[in-house]
Amino acid sequence: MADPNDSVSVDMEKIYLGGKEYHVRTGQGSVSVIVCGDQDKPPLITYPDLALNHMSCFQGLFFFPEAASLLLHNFCIYHISPPGHELGAAEICPHDPSPSADDLADQILEVLNYFGLGAVMCMGVTAGAYILTLFALKYRERVIGLILISPLYKSPSWSEWFYNKVMSNLLYFYGMCGLLKECLLQRYFSKEVRGSAEVAESDIVQACRKLLDERQGNNVLRFLQAINRRPDITEGLKRLRCRTLIFVGDSSPFHSEALHMISKLDRRYSALVEVQACGSMVTEEQPHAMLIPMEYFFMGAPFSRKHGIKAKTYKNPHFLNIVVVVDRTDFGFDEGRL
């Protein structure tokens, strides 16, 4: 096995895009899964936010060399796309029943069973974080840990419900129109990277906008409807015993929800990282802020000794003064700035 402390100096695009795609048939239709890495390594599954897939939601994290070294050297990655969100997806038949959030969580179990996986590490963004948390509550023995980025856990507030209904109507009548894409970009990114009349939007926003052009409006609508009807899982959080690491940007529309969520989790197993000047999608906007907390988080996981996961000392100054960690001492975190 390669030393997890080695740096990555190979073509990251070939590593990241070189995974094999599987179409897993489930009780709720076919699901696309991209598998990257050695399947003998511990499994880490990802689930993206609304209207995204692994390319548009996790590309920044896996293109960041140190994070790619940590993740690809120590895990086999299983990128699960919501139904109809994979690259080149056809439109799902409008007459097919729309899945619920519970149905989507059950699909994950079917995917794990298809690949013969036991307990897995999970990483999800916003809507995807909700689906993975729900999965962890329903199938606790199948989850080692949760890495949640700007997560949801309550039923939609009136303001979120209304915002989602506006997007639903846009999708129903106009598909992936310009206004709908602007609503989604506000959901994902901070104002700083979205730009203004005087400042051009950043490359990551332009890339995301281009990838949104490829989505099928009806497929996105089905996922949005499932999320807008999601049940409140607050009571279940109190009984969640898997290790949980939450990241949230301080400019995320879901910042307050993440703060409330961490207060409901058992302090012995959970930690929160607030990322300054960042929107919801920390994986794309500031992936470097995730590296050190993830390393310490993985060190406490059951497989860490067997697979030699270690923390490293970084000399690169861009890791400093970026995140604020709400203390959960079991992870080796101290309150304050990294």
Q: In words, what does this structure look like?
A:
- The protein starts with 11 loop residues before the first helix and ends with a strand.
- By secondary structure, it is an alpha/beta fold.
- It has a single domain (about 10-155, about 230-335), classed as 3-Layer(aba) Sandwich (Rossmann fold), CATH 3.40.50.
- It has helices at about 10-15, 55, 60-65, 65-75, 100-115, 125-140, 160-175, 180-190, 190-195, 205-210, 215-230, 235, 255-265, 280-285, 290-300, 305; strands at about 20-25, 30-35, 45, 75-80, 120-125, 145-150, 245-250, 270-275, 325, 335.
- The chain is globular.
- Strands 1-2-4-3-5-6-7-8-9-10 form a 10-stranded mixed beta sheet, sandwiched between helices.
- Helix 5 crosses helix 6 and helix 7 runs antiparallel to helix 11.
- The longest helix is centred in the middle third of the chain and has 17 residues, at about 160-175.
- This is Protein NDL1.
- Keywords: Membrane, Transmembrane, Transmembrane helix.
- It holds the Pfam family Ndr.
How would the blueprint of this fold be written?
Layout: H1 12-17, E1 20-26, E2 29-36, E3 43-47, H2 54-57, H3 59-63, H4 65-74, E4 76-80, H5 101-115, E5 120-125, H6 127-138, E6 143-149, H7 158-174, H8 178-188, H9 191-194, H10 203-212, H11 217-228, H12 234-237, E7 243-249, H13 255-264, E8 270-275, H14 282-285, H15 291-299, H16 304-307, E9 323-326, E10 336-337
Parallel strand pairs: 3-4, 3-5, 5-6, 6-7, 7-8
Antiparallel strand pairs: 1-2, 2-4, 8-9, 9-10
Helix pairs in contact: 5-6, 7-11
